[in-house]
Specification:
Structural class of chain B: mainly alpha
Number of domains of chain A: 2
Largest sheet of chain A: 6 strands, mixed
Strand content of chain B: under 5%
Number of domains of chain B: 1
Shape of chain B: elongated
CATH class of the largest domain in chain A: Alpha Beta
Pfam family, one (chain A): NIL
Oligomer: heterodimer
CATH architecture of chain B: Orthogonal Bundle
Helix content of chain A: 25-40%
Order of helices and strands of chain B: HHHHHHHHH
Distance between the termini of chain B: 52 Å
Catalytic activity (chain A): ATP + H2O = ADP + phosphate + H(+)
Function (chain A): Part of the ABC transporter FtsEX involved in cellular division. Has ATPase activity. Essential for cell division and viability.
CATH superfamily of chain B: MetI-like
GO cellular component, one term (chain A): plasma membrane
Organism (chain A): Lactiplantibacillus garii
Shape of chain A: elongated
Helix content of chain B: over 70%
Chain lengths: ~350, ~220
């Protein structure tokens, strides 16, 4: 059985007589020890969905099963018990501002029933883990954003959780600090085998952290795959939009006009690194009698596997070009015809 | 001038003590019960805890009803109640009864506001640890709301000082009564001015101490 199972989750809010369906019929399961990501634009329902896992948000319909416990049928006591084994990391850190770091952690430990006498040692251990051992008596306002988030991680780990939920945990941080936090989370996942569910709108995070990823749009799950597959060949509209923006191949208008002076077709291609594209390009050029001009190309690494990103310009007779496009579509993972008037 | 000094020498000590009794007794009761009611209002309106809109609006209605009475009227209406509780309504203790009844809903609203202003994310984070409400109150709500609560206490004490003069005029004594009795009724401007100066000084001191204290407990 999977560690987290969400079955047909609906979440409906009633706001001033208006009904808002934040999550619509979402089912997914997360395995023990994996890093599962949910991506989507803001307002897609990601935050609401992730909060059903520790039942900060009760679903209107559906079933939430965590480690075999059906939370939808559990009483408040059982829910509190399950919560202690689920750490939560927030975008805005959410530390108690008027309490020191040690007191912030002591609160989480007390909530988890950790014996008071052993708390000081545990607090030192936790702060040491995130590299803030000498800041015990500081207040959150004395820390930078990245340091605050590290305290957030320490707090989430206080009671030896089995699961970490991260709600845009890197979105309020600069790129470098965000990478630092991602490395910490990766290390935690590998060393302690803690399952991580991470929601974000940043595809950089998806690329460097997630094992599997789901795409959410308007409250629905529109796609679910390995991270590599999502980047190589997104299936849903939203998946394609998110990935295209990330693997940006748009040419500046002036350049595009220059390139496309002669009649032809601009193609954006993405292909799995294991395929070697050169023979295909040469072959298609030969077969169809067109010229293929490579405008730009690069290789992205996702989960340590390569994805080729290429923009080519096809010139030749209209019939030959359309045939060539067909052949590309058969042999390459992702083909997008870029219209010159865009 | 000599008369003013004699009056002040004979009466000022008692008057100050009576005022202190009225303000501190009613302030203490108002703060304790007001905090509890404020917490109650917060608990039953926050979606992270246990939202009970009906219970909340009933409680809110009662608070508003008491607060909508001008203090002068509330005081008169409560004379029988003060008699029941304190024996003689025309003593500082009797005066403290109606002052308390006014202070409770006043501070309840301030406390509710202080709790409601706490960053919802911080409370949510506390909730996600599996902590119960009492622990969250003690370790999150109270320290986070403390500066606002202290400012509320200052506001309440200063308002009570003002109201205590009104209770004083119906016989409960105190510094306000001194000003009316001698300063107004007997045309002794010296007493009136002295009382005004004393009141200004007291209010300044209370405000200053409250501000320092609130600052001390603000770490963000």
């Amino acid at each position: 059985m999977s560690q987290i199972e969400l079955k047909n989750i609906d979440v409906t809010f009633k706001q001033k007589g208006r009904t808002v369906q934040a999550v619509k019929d979402v089912s997914l399961s997360v395995e023990k020890g994996e890093i599962f990501g949910i991506v989507g634009l803001s307002g897609a329902g990601k935050s609401t969905l992730v909060r059903t896992i520790n039942y900060l948000q009760a679903p209107s319909n559906g079933q939430v099963v965590v480690d075999g416990t059906d939370l939808t049928r559990a009483n408040a006591k059982t829910i509190a018990k399950v919560r202690r084994k689920i750490g939560f990391i927030f975008q805005n850190f959410n530390l108690i501002n008027n309490r020191t770091l040690a007191q912030n952690l002591a609160f989480a430990l007390t909530a988890g029933g950790y014996p008071e006498k052993q708390q000081p040692a545990r607090i030192t251990e936790l702060l040491d883990l995130v590299g803030l051992a000498d800041r015990q008596d500081n207040y959150p306002s004395q820390l930078s954003g990245g340091q605050k988030q590290r305290v957030g991680i320490a707090r989430a780990l206080a009671n030896d959780p089995d699961i970490l939920l991260c709600d845009e945990a890197t979105s309020a941080l600069d790129v470098e600090t965000a990478e630092e936090i991602i490395e910490i989370l990766k290390g935690i996942n590998q060393r302690l085998n803690i399952t991580i569910v991470f929601i974000t709108h940043q595809l950089e995070v998806a690329r460097s952290l997630f094992d599997r990823v789901a795409v959410m749009e308007n409250g629905q799950l529109v796609e679910q795959s390995s991270t590599y597959d999502l980047f190589a060949a997104p299936q849903s509209d939203m998946g394609q939009r998110l990935v295209s923006r990330f693997l940006d191949t748009t040419l500046p208008a002036k350049v595009q006009a220059q390139v496309t002076q002669t009649d032809g077709q601009l193609l954006a291609l993405r292909y799995r690194g294991s395929d070697s594209l050169n023979p295909i390009i040469t072959k298609i050029a030969k077969e169809t009698g067109i010229d293929i001009n490579i405008i730009q190309g690069r290789v992205e690494f996702i989960q340590e596997r390569a994805i080729g990103v290429l923009v080519v310009y096809l010139t030749g007779t209209a019939v030959a070009i359309s045939r060539a496009v067909q052949v590309f579509k058969q042999r390459v993972d992702y083909v997008k015809e870029v219209t010159t008037h865009e | 001038m000599n008369e003013t000094i004699t009056i002040l020498q004979q009466n000022l000590g008692t008057a100050l003590w009576d005022t202190a009794k009225m303000v501190f007794i009613s302030g203490f009761i108002g703060i304790i019960f007001g905090t509890l009611i404020g917490l109650f209002l917060y608990y039953f309106s926050n979606p992270l805890f246990s939202p009970r809109p009906v219970l909340n609006s009933i409680c809110g209605f009662i608070i508003n009803a008491i607060r909508s009475l001008p203090f002068l009227i509330l005081m008169v209406v409560l004379i029988p109640f003060a008699k029941l509780v304190a024996g003689d309504p025309y003593t500082p203790l009797g005066g403290a009864v109606s002052l308390s009844v006014a202070a409770i809903p006043f501070f309840a609203r301030l406390a509710e506001g202080a709790f409601a202003e706490i960053d919802a994310g911080v409370v949510e984070a506390a909730r996600s640890t599996g902590a119960g409400f009492f622990l969250i109150f003690q370790e999150v709500l109270f320290p986070e709301a403390l500066p606002a609560l202290i400012r509320g206490v200052v506001l309440t004490l200063i308002s009570l000082l003002g109201y205590s003069a009104m209770v004083g005029t119906i016989g409960a004594g105190g510094i306000g009564d001194l000003a009316i009795q001698y300063g107004y009724n007997r045309y002794n401007t010296g007493v009136l001015i002295s009382v005004i100066v004393i009141l200004i000084v007291i209010v300044q001191i209370v405000q200053w101490c409250g501000d320092r204290l609130a600052e001390h407990y603000t770490r963000s």
